[in-house]
Design goal:
The complex is a heterodimer of chains A (647) and B (158). Chain A is an alpha+beta fold. Chain A is 14% helix and 22% strand. The longest helix of chain A has 18 residues, at 381-398. Residues 1-30 of chain B have low confidence and may be disordered. Chain B contains five helices and eleven strands. Chain B is globular, with a radius of gyration of 16 Å. Chain B is an alpha+beta fold. Chain B folds into two domains: 6-13 and 85-151, 2-Layer Sandwich (Alpha-Beta Plaits), CATH 3.30.70; 32-83, no CATH class. The chains are: A alpha+beta (647), B alpha+beta (158).
Chain lengths: 647, 158
């Protein structure tokens, strides 16, 4: 039974409160002009459902099973100052962007759109379900006009491309999309709510055009450099393997047994598997829900920089208020949809068992609040990335002189730690028995010792030797628009914009892996005292002189790194997505083998700001491979490292 | 729509067609490979002798098929990718990159300069010559990043 009458009353009340300008931030410094000058998004009819912009006054605030009423972007104070993205160019690379959308059109620059399928400037997708990019765009840039929703940067200049989901053998020209073409070259911030979800290790390779283009981002913006906000992916539980859009199988990971129950202890897929996420101009973004907790799907790993808001995995009720976050339900991110009830995520024929009434074309709620089906809601790190992109646009609007490193720096320094005790919850702080099929032990020791047969594989939030708090779930924490814009306005210590890719140094050869144990793979010594930004490690299987099979099954091997100051980062975990295999003929994981010619690279931001001088230790924390994977016995790894400095 | 200089050498249509950058009906019939799919050793053997090229330490074999985006290749694990014989130079001034390419002029089909990114792209008349040029330039063009794009996996939305 639906609570329509009650919900309508709550909605009306919260709209009134919002319209009165909830919050205590002053508009006295605002110089914005126009009909919505210095106003929050309360001017927009669907604003009450945009919990990420004002949680306390949102429709969902009273639904305590799905919302804590406080988790949002802290953005209204910025809007009241009249900072709404003016003068900033955002590029949405996605499955398309509806250029005539009623709530986007005012902000779209037709000279900044492209369609790689048709090779025309009309980025509007043709598929009725290709609404992803239009949703992403609305989260960033939906106009403030008394219609629908409002973007985080509602006066930004918006570009976009039909870049994903091309057919008939078309492949997008990445260099053109990433700032090389006339339509993309003036981009200040790219939004990339897409990734390659990989079930086998891939090489960090001189064949990656994406890496080459991103390493050239510092040349954009007349040398100040652009950034790309990129989703961390939705592969915490498993990876859905698809072919031509059709699901083939779920590439899952082993769960950890403990006292008769099983737990998904760590992220199944590592965001760094898509190797472009190892590049510094990429701001890897995790997702949180309205309860102030990591979204259940959000991939975790040591290349995550920041957390945005992506909502929960499913959304039921009238607007997403039913169920509980613990059961992966809750509100998603409201935004613009492909226009009309015959296309997009809100359309005729959707099932109430799968989506909120708001999305079902012709339902009473839909007819009342979304009668033309021009708006919808979407979850995922695809949604969290644009929430961060929107904040970056506000920062650049407040201070256009920020360089690409400054943007990262401000996001990091102003991020809010969330869910500080998660590392001790749901047995995440228990050691994993490495010699058995995945099980947990009773021990919660953090000791990492050579030859041990159990180890912790999640450390939760840690404070490193430079005093920076970091977590593989949240990076440096939840983005804070008000704090970021405040810092951006006062920012004068601009960082070097040049990006010099460091060369690899040898970290060790013939590092012995022993499946079922913790093994110290090698040590390397660093003389430099320049503070760390990111450290990267590269691995290949050691060559054997007698032509024996030489491979290491990285699905079983976790790589941990200990700094001279004693911080430990988990760069990859054992029993990850490479480990398992289904019987599906296209499941080629087979242990995640790397060979002697592989270039397997991992990275970590967990040491950010630390002085690297001294001895570093690399550990392999290895589970026991499946016998069917035919992993080579007693394998060894050769290793290298390189350090990007915090300039 | 590409920014900057775009030098097209006329002879290319013919060469491109002959190497699979443009495709005849015969090669198209063989072109239904799925990117990222692994061919088994038996499937690879059935294809007969295949030409190969190396990029850095990595070896790729060329399949006699392609589509509008390039020629299919397989890596040492049998994974299918696609390559259009392009070499990208970044990390050095554009003039330096263009100068370095002069030595390969007879093999280059077209050159594109991306001023905003300070990148230069040269498309070669065949994959092996592209790889050879890429590998030579990687050792001689100090400070440059040399990339020979091969696409194995297409991204999908999150």
């Amino acid at each position: 039974m639906r609570r329509i009458a009650y919900l309508a009353l709550v909605s009306f009340t919260t709209t009134l409160i919002s319209a009165c300008g909830g919050g205590s931030d002053s508009t006295s410094s605002c110089t914005e002009t126009g009909p919505y000058a210095c106003q929050t998004g309360a001017s927009e009819p669907l604003y009450t459902y945009q919990w990420g912009l004002n949680a306390a006054q949102s429709f969902f605030a009273t639904y305590t099973e799905v919302s804590d009423g406080t988790t949002d972007l802290n953005v209204e104070a910025v809007h009241k100052q009249g900072i709404k993205g003016q003068g900033v160019n955002v590029m949405v690379l996605d499955d398309g962007l509806e250029i005539n959308h009623i709530d986007l059109k005012a902000n779209i620059n037709p000279a900044m759109t492209w369609n790689f399928q048709t090779n025309t400037s009309d980025s509007t997708p043709t598929g009725i379900n290709e609404a992803h990019g239009t949703n992403v765009a609305g989260m960033i840039a939906a106009a403030q006009n008394g219609i629908g929703v409002m973007g985080i940067a509602p006066r930004v200049t918006l570009g976009g491309a039909k870049f994903i989901g091309l057919t008939n053998g078309a492949i997008a020209n990445v260099v053109e999309a990433y700032g090389g073409a006339l339509w993309s070259k003036n981009t200040d911030v790219f939004n990339a709510s897409y990734s390659k979800s990989l079930i086998v290790p891939i090489d960090y390779s001189p064949t990656s055009v994406e890496i080459a283009a991103v390493q050239s981002f510092p040349n954009l913006r007349n040398g100040k450099g652009a950034v790309m906000v990129k989703s961390a992916a939705n592969d915490y539980v498993d990876i859905q393997v698809r072919e031509n859009g059709i699901k083939l199988f779920d590439a899952s990971c082993p769960k950890f047994e403990y006292r008769g129950a099983s737990y998904s202890l760590v992220s199944c897929a590592n965001p760094s598997s898509d190797t472009v996420r190892l590049e510094l101009p990429i701001i890897v973004t995790a997702a949180a829900n309205a309860k102030g907790y990591k979204s259940s799907y959000s991939s975790a790993g040591s290349v995550v920089w920041i957390t945005g808001l992506g909502g929960q995995g499913g959304s039921l009720g009238n607007y997403g208020e039913e169920g509980s976050a613990e059961k992966d339900l809750g509100p998603q991110i409201y935004s613009t949809d492909l226009m009309g009830c015959d296309r997009g995520y809100s359309k005729y024929g959707e099932s109430p068992d799968e989506v909120a009434q708001f999305l079902i074309g012709g339902s009473p709620i839909n007819q009342e609040k979304n009668p033309s089906c021009d708006f919808s809601q979407m979850n995922g790190t695809s949604s969290s990335a644009p929430t961060v992109t929107g904040v970056v646009a506000l920062m650049l609007s407040a201070n256009p002189n920020l360089g690409w490193r400054d943007i990262r720096d401000i996001l990091r320094r102003t991020a809010r730690q969330m869910n500080p005790d998660y590392g001790n919850q749901n047995y995440r702080n228990h050691q994993v028995n490495l010699t058995l099929n995945p099980t947990l032990s009773d021990s919660t020791s953090t000791a990492l010792s050579d030859g041990a047969t159990a180890a912790r594989i999640d450390y939760g939030w840690q404070t490193n030797g430079a005093g920076n708090k970091y977590s593989n779930w949240y990076g440096f924490g939840l983005v804070d628009a008000k704090a970021a814009v405040t810092m951006a306005k006062a920012y004068t210590s601009y960082k070097l914009t040049q990006l010099v890719v460091p060369t690899w140094s040898l970290a060790g050869v013939d590092g012995q892996v022993k499946y079922g144990e913790v093994k110290e793979l090698g040590k390397f010594s660093v003389a430099s005292e320049k503070a760390i930004d990111m450290i990267q490690l590269v691995f290949n299987a050691s060559k054997k002189p007698d032509n024996e099979v030489s491979n290491v099954c990285m699905g079983s091997v976790g790589i941990f790194l200990k700094s001279p100051q004693g911080s430990v980062s988990v760069l990859s975990t054992p029993y990850n997505v490479f480990y398992d295999n289904t019987t599906h003929t296209k499941d080629t994981r087979n242990g995640g083998k790397i060979g002697s010619d592989s270039i397997y690279v991992l990275g970590s931001y967990a040491f950010y700001g630390e002085n690297p001088k001294g001895d570093w230790t690399i550990y392999a924390v290895s589970g026991t491979p499946l016998t069917t994977s035919e992993c080579a016995a007693n394998p060894k790894l050769d290793m290298g490292y390189r350090i990007y400095n915090a300039e | 729509m590409i920014e900057g200089l775009n030098i097209v050498y006329k002879k290319l249509m013919v060469i491109a067609a002959s190497i699979g950058l443009g495709f005849s009906g015969l090669t198209y019939a063989q072109s239904n490979y799925e990117l990222g799919t692994m061919l088994t050793p038996a499937q690879i053997s059935a294809l007969g002798p295949l030409k190969s090229f190396t990029v850095g330490t990595m070896t790729f074999r060329i399949l006699a098929a392609g589509n509008r985006s390039g020629t299919y290749v397989i890596n040492d694990q049998g994974k299918i990718g696609i390559c259009n014989g392009e070499v990208l130079i970044s990390g050095v001034p554009i003039d330096q990159a263009k100068k370095a390419l002069i030595a390969y002029q007879s093999s280059i089909v077209s050159t594109t300069v991306y001023d905003s990114l300070k990148m230069v792209s040269a498309k070669f008349s065949n994959l092996q010559e592209a790889a050879n040029a890429r590998n030579e330039l990687a050792t001689t063009l100090t400070g440059a990043t040399l990339t020979m794009p091969i696409t194995f996996n297409l991204p999908r939305v999150n």
